[in-house]
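Cross-check.
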Amino acid sequence: MKIAFVGKGGSGKTTLSSLFIRHLATTGAPVVAVDADINQHLGAALGLDEARAAALPAMGERLQLIKDWLRGSNPRIASAQTMIKTTPPGEGSRLLRVCENNPVYDACARPVELDGGTVRLMVTGPFTDSDLGVACYHSKTGAVELFLNHLVDGPGEYVVVDMTAGSDSFASGMFTRFDITFLVAEPTRKGVSVYRQYKEYARDFGVILKVVGNKVQSQDDLDFLRAEVGDDLLVTVGHSDWVRAMEKGRPPRFELLEDANHLALCRLRTAVDATYELRDWERYTRQMVHFHLKNARSWGNERTGTDLAAQIDPGFVLGERVTAPSEGDARLTPTA
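Predicted model, tokenized:
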């Protein structure tokens, strides 16, 4: 299952995503955690010290390797140089599984030990001084989008992505890559404004959006959120001494998290697992193609000097029917 955490800057989305990752890890579930935010804080929220967090390999700096691997023997893609962030897989493409070893994970993922389990952590990489004035951060998050476009995840497997703040994810088609999106909102006008914007943008794409109310301290806060977001409000989270200790770099054992907050995490997982039966791989693939054509027309064809529409394999639908791996490759059988 693919899960996104979004929200305005300072809403607590990184904290909530890290708590959910820890919650999954305690059950032994396979988890890939991805920090796709311009401000890279997920590693620290998962307990890494400053040096280890800074040493995490940036996906954005390994984009060529990612493209080379994913391209595989796909005859519709002339070279890795012609792949853009929205390039969809087709016959011959290499696909990624949550539970496997491959060169992409070797180069970009690092294990993080948490209470009760280990997760794979991947990071887009920070926006550096050398990028200022000459690069767009979305070119780095393109590595995450390619990863998600070529990912085959099944029930009981979790990919949790801490997204860019606000509505930046709408600069690409990445917002459609998830089974469910949790929008973390504070009980303030600014807190719910991102919700309204996200809801409006995602309306026509079948995005399942649920609100997690954060920093809710009173009945008035709860009433405000209910009035503003209605039935999309899934759960609320209040003050946490455990989180405060974690932010100081001294997290207690995760089992000591407050009962109310632990229950909130259980409700998030229940909502996530319930979306599995709603999966529509044909729609997922169709949306992938839609955004690829949109990017091709607006800038991709000119940038690569190639008609990127030719990269689309009309008979290919991403899905979970996997053929026997060959030399470590995990491939899908196209379904009509």
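The chain has eleven helices and ten strands. Residues 281-304 form the longest helix (24 residues). Passed to J.P. for a second look.
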